Amino acid sequence: MSKWLAVIIGAILLISVLTGAQADKDPIDKAVFVHYPKGALERPLSPPGQVGGVLCNDYKYNGIHWANPSIKYGINPSGFTDTTPVQAAFATWDGASGPLGFSYQGPTSRSGGIFDGYNVVSWENISAQYPNAIAVTTVWYYRFGKQIVEVDTQMNSTLAWSYTVPNVSPDLSGSAIPVASRYADPTNSGVAYDVQNIMTHEAGHWIMLGDLYKSVGSELTMYGYGATGELKKDTLAYGDELGVERVYGP
Question: Domains in the chain and their CATH numbers?
Answer without folding.
Answer: 29-248 (3.40.390.10)
